[in-house]
């Protein structure tokens, strides 16, 4: 059936391009577990969001944790951290996040966090997760979740509320701006006010003038040049064509 109508099933392994409809799920055998893919933009419970994960791994190498421990104590939010060891900005963010995570857990407002790896191989994954004090998805079980969140850039920190709605897709920006106070607020279910335009980080966008990467602050776009962006400092220097100020996107 193309396209698939209704419920879609597939293999969560990144190298398996398996897609099945509801009628074919019982007729197909596969070497890995087949899971139900979630519909991007649709609201799900924590249990549904993490249903494709058989178990979690703890900070020690052989420790296995039941996935349901993420929501057993009825947290008001859960942070989902997408990152990979191969990217220097990701490693820097992991170090910063680890510091604030431990500070939050030493306070009265512990923050629930889980790591979703985008590493290319299991060796890098194991090396990277050794730096983390929070649970992680096993290697090669992330495909369904990555697709549900529409392939978030790296590093990304998604904050999910208890009702399954996305509080913010830009947790990383808030952590870099507010530090441990961001984690404490999320642990209490509090939504932080939008970051000022001067602090907003445009993930995946760089300034074609000064080559600031990622572009931080107000973003100006040239539709004539196409794929051409300037930061506020370079916009003031002038450009051959009219520039459009791109509004800061909503958190969710």
UniProtKB/TrEMBL annotation:
The record's annotation in InterPro entries points to: Nucleoredoxin-like (IPR052259), Thioredoxin-like_fold (IPR012336), Thioredoxin-like_sf (IPR036249), Thioredoxin_domain (IPR013766), Znf_ZZ (IPR000433), Znf_ZZ_sf (IPR043145)
Q: Which domain of life is it from?
A: Eukaryota
- Looking at the record, the residues that make up the Thioredoxin domain are 47-192
Protein name listed in UniProt: protein-disulfide reductase
The reactions it catalyses are: [protein]-dithiol + NADP(+) = [protein]-disulfide + NADPH + H(+); [protein]-dithiol + NAD(+) = [protein]-disulfide + NADH + H(+)
Instruction: Identify one Pfam family in the record.
Output: Thioredoxin_8
Q: Which family does it belong to?
A: Belongs to the nucleoredoxin family.
Keyword annotations for this protein, in alphabetical order, are: Metal-binding, NAD, Oxidoreductase, Repeat, Zinc, Zinc-finger
Q: From which source organism is this entry?
A: Rotaria socialis
Known EC number? 1.8.1.8
> Which stretches make up the ZZ-type domain?
202-251
Concerning SUPFAM superfamilies, the annotation shows:
RING/U-box, Thioredoxin-like
Q: Give GO MF terms, alphabetically.
A: protein-disulfide reductase [NAD(P)H] activity; zinc ion binding
Q: What class of enzyme is it?
A: oxidoreductase
């Amino acid at each position: 059936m193309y396209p698939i109508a209704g419920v879609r099933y597939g293999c969560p392994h990144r190298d398996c391009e398996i897609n099945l409809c509801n009628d074919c799920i019982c007729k197909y055998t596969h070497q890995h577990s087949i899971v139900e893919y979630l519909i991007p933009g649709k609201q799900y419970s924590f249990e549904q969001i993490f249903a494709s994960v058989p178990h979690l791994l703890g900070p020690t190498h052989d420790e296995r944790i039941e996935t349901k421990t993420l929501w057993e104590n009825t947290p008001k939010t859960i942070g989902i951290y997408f990152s990979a060891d191969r990217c220097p900005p990701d490693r820097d963010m992991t170090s910063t996040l680890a510091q604030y995570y431990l500070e939050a857990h030493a306070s009265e407002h512990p923050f629930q966090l889980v790591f979703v790896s985008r590493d290319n191989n299991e060796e890098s994954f194991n090396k990277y997760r050794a730096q983390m004090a929070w649970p992680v998805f096993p290697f090669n079980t992330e495909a369904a979740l990555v697709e549900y969140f529409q392939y978030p850039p790296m590093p990304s920190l998604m904050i999910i509320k208890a009702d399954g709605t996305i509080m913010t897709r830009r947790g990383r920006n808030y952590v870099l701006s507010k530090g441990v106070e961001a984690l404490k607020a999320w642990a209490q279910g509090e939504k932080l006010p939008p970051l000022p335009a001067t602090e907003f980080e445009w993930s995946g966008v760089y300034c074609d003038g000064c080559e600031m990467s990622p572009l931080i602050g107000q973003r100006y776009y040239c539709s004539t040049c196409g794929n051409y962006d300037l930061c506020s400092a370079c916009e003031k220097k002038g450009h051959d064509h009219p520039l459009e100020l791109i509004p800061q996107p909503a958190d969710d």
